[in-house]
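Intended use. Records like the one below are meant for learning the mapping from a protein sequence to its folded structure. Do not use them to infer anything beyond what is encoded.
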Amino acid sequence: MLEKNFHPKEVENRLYQMWEKAGAFRPSDDASKDPYCIVIPPPNVTGRLHMGHALNNALQDCLIRFERMRGKAALWQPGTDHAGIATQMIVERKLMDEEGVRRLDIGREAFLDRVWQWKAESGGMIVDQLRRLGATCDWSRERFTMDEGLSRAVREVFVRLYRDGLIYRDKRLVNWHPDLKTALSDLEVENIEVEGHMWHFGYPIADQNGAPTDQRIVVATTRPETMLGDTAVAVHPDDERYKHLIGSQVRLPLADRLIPIVGDPYADPEQGSGAVKITPAHDFNDFEVGRRHDLPQLSILDEAGRINDAAPEAYHGLDRFEARDRVVADMRAGGFLEKIDPHTHTIPFDEKSKSVVIEPLLTDQWYLNAEKLAQPAIEAVEAGRTQFVPRNWERTYFEWMRNIQPWCISRQLWWGHQIPAWYGPDDHIFVAETEAEALSEAARHYGADTPLIRDPDVLDTWFSSGLWPFSTLGWPDETAELNRFYKTDVLVTAFDIIFFWVARMMMMGLYVMKDVPFHTVYIHALVRDEHGQKMSKTKGNVIDPLELIDEYGADALRFTLLAMAAQGRDIKLAKSRVEGYRNFGTKLWNAARFCEMNECIAQPEFEPGQCQQPINRWMIGEVQTTALNVTEAVEGYRFNDAAGALYRFVWNVFCDWYLELIKPLLNGDEGEAKRETRAAAAYVLDETLKLLHPFMPFLTEEVWQRFGETGHPRSGMLINTSWPKAQTALIDVEARAEMEWVIGLISEIRSVRSEVNIPAAARIPVLLQGADETTRERLERHMDRLKTLARLESIKLTDAPPTGSIQAILEETTVHIPLKDVIDIPTETERLSKEIAKVTTDIDRIDAKLGNEKFVNNAPEHVVETQRERREEAILTRTKLNDALKRLQDAAA
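Structure written out for the chain above:
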């Protein structure tokens, strides 16, 4: 028996354990079932569930539950990422806080032992949190990007790529973290706008003997310290001001070096002076200019961000920002500082701390020839073998893939996949899967056993993540799971890792498996706060999904996110929305209790197509229509449409109308009509639970398990039941038309009562004029329902419309609602007129605000949007009030 209220905290953990213990999350071994597979975007082992995770995993779980119920062998492959930098930082801080030592003090092996210990103790938090959301991953197959199987896969792919000439060593610019002393990926760098300065320096042009002249060429920079590494000044080849200087030299102040003036289109004549200082070793754009003109790459910073001995001695050992101040002071003293302007520009920061400025640095790193691997991945999307949903994200994918740069895959860390490369005494490189293989190769190369030193670097985390769709299924072994589930079906992810993960999985999948890793990439939106602003700790607008689960239950949060997951539109999340969908769940729970108390218990012999009562035929048809709409929407990744169809059906049709309309039958004498209605209501409830299960799994499973359990216990779990197949033959067009007429008439009468303030307790007469035979028959069949639900004294047919009544049109019939002796028409007319005037004043006030250019341009976007929304609501209210006033005026005429 269902309790009076649904208590998520008491139910969720119990049901989840029941599902997991029963093996409900594992794919069926039945070979006749079609496979369906989603690989989870592996959350960082350091991670904690945030709202983006909640959305991402609610979408995946909805799909997995949907396809499992549709009879497929559904595998949701879980796992976590080792998160190289984040994990190493956490353990280093822990060492310093608890033991007062650094990783360098204890050495690499001991440090890695501490990391594994931390992972065992604290690294599974997010997995437990995903369980709280209801994620039905096959946890028995959980993987980790550093487990032995995936490590073997990483080594094999690296060696294969190296031997195919696709991995190589090179000296190039990278994003460098001076504190961690490692290269970073672009994803680990956040460009933040700051208020700074632009320093303008005058470089003396040299004469033929190299001596400085009085003529100067002015360059501007936001990083004065880098001038110590300048190797050229660039001007546009067509800039008339400087064309004659191309090929000349300038005497670089402070460094006292001659550097050339080169002609290059990178210099924009419209920006600043039109001349640009070129520092190939400290700027990504300058690096490319330097390559075009074969300029020296002079690096003047060491790994800690201090000036090295390649710069003038006066600056040796200075921190880069100390050097900046010294350079500016010395340029001023030397007469080379032309001016300083305030300047707003973006600076690259460490994405994690947002406090360390990232430095472009010229270093030796391992690179992957991404351009060659990208071509098949581009062709696969062009041919439609993998499709993006929404399709517009394909443009983003193509834009990046067609302009792809060499991928820096090495990191100067200890935690991660150590690169399987060893160096001989002459720095000859030996790449092999094991040290024994490398030593064997070295012996053949040198003609004798030779000691080797292993490369200390580790691989970029995205390298191992790029193998995820096949390495998690057992590759490089030919496992049954790999053969059955690769390629996988859909990848659900956010747009910001299309470059960093989606593209790399495409490249690696096609290289290793010779097939795309998935046929669909569903890109979901961002979850923002209720005003449309990005959530951040700095703004204090972060909404914690776990807190929402504690307060409203996992179902309410899941349904909210799915209901708002419109393709291409960010989610504006407010607690009130979650509360609203919690109330939706409560509505269904109460409906189930009503059915249970009225003995609406599922009957095995019930044939929905044999119903005689129009109301039951209508409702059974509505279930089929809803099943059709929900199925099509989920298949098309239109989760909001699916959730919307369910919401409207459950709240507006099943609860608000069907259960109300069948009360006379349920309260009547025992007979065939009552038995049919009980069975039909039970059938509709069961089909509703099935349709809603992927969206609200806990509440639906609890109703399924507990409903009528005393006399009619369920034989199985809802999670394992079959998805409702829409039976269009059960959609009764005549029954639908009849019940829509009943609902339309009641709704029209209720609307008029509300508009003109007819007291709720007042039972009023209603007259129908022009009713045809069909309407007369409907009226006779549903008289009791109409009188009860519309609160009518009587409802009669008439040929002569009474005076003093409000009219409404329903199909061919005119509905007359007499107002005499019910309300005071003049008083009500005055009230409506005052309300209209008040709303009009509100609209005028909002229009004045929105017409104020200063307000629109300066107010926060969400404030302006709120005013626009209020205006729309006010206009809608005024329209309804005007309609009501006109009805009253017509009645009084």
